[in-house]
Amino acid sequence: MAHPPEKKLAQVPVPHHWSFRVWPQLLPELAERIVHCLDRNDIAATFRRINKTTAEHFSGTLHTTIHLSEPVPPHAFAAHWLTPGATRGLTLARRRKLVRLVAASGVLPNLEVALQAVGLYAKNPLRDGRMGDRRHVCL
């Protein structure tokens, strides 16, 4: 006699898994896949700040170090570097290095913030037309 097919029960999210506090409706495996798609700077600068659980779970240096030569979310970059005194402890050489690293990331809004933060320029030559046909050099 053939046995009736077994019904597969849907897995219920595990309440003690870190993802339950962020996405209670998702399976932990799906939450892990979503986070796996994020850049490490996105995790360090944004995702960890969702709540205490994500901050604790993603607390290792891999998830807490922001790499300035890679894209950083502009809102997080500006929030840090435009605070008064953010560059006070940096020497001129370190300020220039900050600008070089941010330029290497290719995120123009962050480069504008970095230049403003270190005090190396006042106006944006790309926006006020002084670059003429040389804009491609800066991009």
UniProtKB/TrEMBL annotation:
Chain ranges passing through the membrane: none
GO BP: any one term: ceramide biosynthetic process
Coiled coil residues, start to end: none
Gene Ontology MF terms: phospholipase activity
GO terms under cellular component: cell periphery; endoplasmic reticulum; membrane
Name of the molecule in the record: F-box domain-containing protein
Organism the protein comes from: Gonium pectorale (Green alga)
